[in-house]
Amino acid sequence: MSTACEERVRALRGQLARQELSGFIVPHADEYQNEYLPACAERLAWLTGFTGSAGTAVVLSEQASIFVDGRYTLQVRSQVDVRVFTPRHLIEEPVHSWLSAVLRPGDKLGYDPWLHTPQEVKRLKEACSKAGAALMPCEPNPIDALWDDRPAPPEAKVVPHDLAYTGKSSEDKRHQLSRQLKNDGIGVAVLTAPDSIAWLLNIRGGDVEHTPLPLGFALLYQDGTASLFLDVHKVSDALTSHLGPSVRIRSVSEFHDALEQLGKAGERVLCDPNRTASWIPEHLVRVGAQVIEEDDPCLLPKACKNTVEISGARAAQKRDGAAVCQFLAWLSQEAGKGRLSERDAQAYLDACRRRQPLWQDSSFPTISASGSNGAIVHYRAADQQPRMLAPGTLYLVDSGGQYLDGTTDITRTIAIGSPTPEHRDRYTRVLKGHIALATATFPKGTTGAQLDALARRPLWEVGLDYDHGTGHGVGSYLGVHEGPQRISKGGHTVALQPGMILSNEPGYYKNGEYGIRLENLVVVILAATGDGAGREWFAFETITLVPFDASLIDGSLLNVTERDWLNAYHTRVRESIGPLVDSSTADWLEQATERIV
User: Fold this and answer.
1) Does residue 530 have a pLDDT over 90?
2) Is the pLDDT of residue 531 over 70?
3) Each residue of 491-507: pLDDT tens digit?
């Protein structure tokens, strides 16, 4: 009996044959280049069954492959029919490299120009050219013709986000960026990233699960005014009043005409080549505009949080820490009884968060993974038969909350019962890497790629590593993953700057047995001292407040500096969180933060 995957791929190949195409690319993307997509844009999941937040499938006439990064190498094999799609590692075997090797002269490879950025299209064209093939834009997307039960586009109301949380008015933000446009001789910037639009206009939405994004487009003009293109169902009187007369709200159906007008006026138009759908700059050029390829102007100002946003982040982390400590105190009593499943634990943790002031949602689906499931970096208990938390195993829980004043993300690994010597060794090495990054000081201009090895060194010393980045940016009641800041092995040239919030999350994963990840959020701050030559130095302030599992720490592997940092951190956690929790959690917290000697 054929699977749904086989039937859908067969139908897609029939559709491609009618369009005289040799293949088609299916990225995990929408027209806004989101990481997390509304249900109506989950074309990759519909075709393949893969539900991860990053990946690309390519369907050719005689073969098909799906490309994922190291976070999803196990998940993809559990979700996708590997008889239909061959899983490939996105980093070790990039899509464009594979295409240049397998395409044949004369092949025509289709793509949806709304789902790929100009930079991606450039690489794909080069790969096709190398093979003697051609890259062909497809409108409409051929999958849409086959997806009979495709969900309707979301229509969540767009709401104002209060100045008490943003710290800066939309008018001030717009005029700051408009001065930059004027200095660069640019008439208008096209904004398609929903988090940029939300940040610039101090608005939030509900079109994407777990991230308060309003899906739409915007144009920011040189005079500081803007046009916001939204589905009319999302607009309210409160939104119109909040935005004021300098922001014109228009139907999303008018976006095409607005681009036409820019072309007729011969405007110089900024488009981010890494974040804008390729259709937009291509169309602008066709209608007479001059496209300037530069970064989204909201990107760095959004990443560098102001003092109000940082204060909000600290406050949100404190309340979130209280929720997680309440969960861990409960877990310490219940896990050893052998009656808890991954879903039971997840439900309790989610309930602890929901009781916190200013809570709005989870910041992503909680990863509640016991035993071997912990080795699946983005495991979801909801997608599988939940495993029980059994004595002698490790339990990994990665979770976060969306609060009006901040976004949180934390991972802890807990021993259920007595850990093995190997568990303790690997855990402590991950902790050593975490501390090395947390205590780093670095000169202005340093990138996350230059710091990444600090977190890996204790594992590298014994021939171990992990296959994901060490840190990602985090938004302010926005995306739990935010650019441009990152801490990973390479390819990231953005210097870290004060106000940036990032995760610090080294890990270790032993396939089929267990996973370990230890994640706190940190904010970049000015270091206490410089180098005496006037050059600024930066450091990290850890803002997550939850203890590490002392039963998994091998104190003999810690040096004096590491032990002092850990004890000082635990003292800070106890003093900050103790007054916020009930007596039983406070008692647990006293024990969990005892000095490591």
Assistant:
1) no
2) no
3) 678 999 999 999 999 99
Q: Are 220 and 199 in contact (CB under 8 A)?
A: no
Q: Report the alpha-carbon distance of residue 67 to residue 95 in Å, rounded.
A: 7
Distance (Å, whole) CA 48 – CA 66 = 8
- Tokens 């990759």 sit at which residue? 44
Q: How far apart are CA 86 and CA 64, in angstroms?
A: 6
Instruction: Enter the tokens of residue 412.
Output: 């802890």
Nearest to 596 by CA among 398, 424, 439, 371: 424
pTM above 0.85, yes or no: yes
The sign of the torsion formed by the CA atoms of 289, 293, 295, 297 equals: negative
Residue 221 host element (H or E): strand 217-221
Q: Tell me 20's DSSP state.
A: T
pLDDT above 60: residue 174: yes
Residue with tokens 């997840």: 346
Residue 429 Cα to chain centre, angstroms: 25
pLDDT in tens, 202-244: 999 999 999 999 999 999 999 999 999 999 999 999 999 999 9
Q: How far apart are CA 494 and CA 500, in angstroms?
A: 11
d(CA 100, CA 98): 6
- Residue pair 73/55 in contact (Cβ under 8 Å)? The answer is no
Neighbours of 445 (CB within 10 A): 12
At 21-55, the pLDDT tens digits run: 999 999 999 999 998 899 999 999 999 999 988 89
Is the model's pLDDT at 351 over the cut of 80?
Answer: yes
Torsion sign across C-alpha atoms 382, 431, 470, 67: negative
Bridge partner list, 131: none
Q: How many CA atoms lie within 13 A of 378 on its CB side?
A: 20
Whole-angstrom CA distances from 525 to 469, 474, 480, 536 are: 21, 15, 20, 11
CB 345 within 8 A of CB 389: yes
Distance between CA atoms of residues 377 and 73, nearest Å: 9
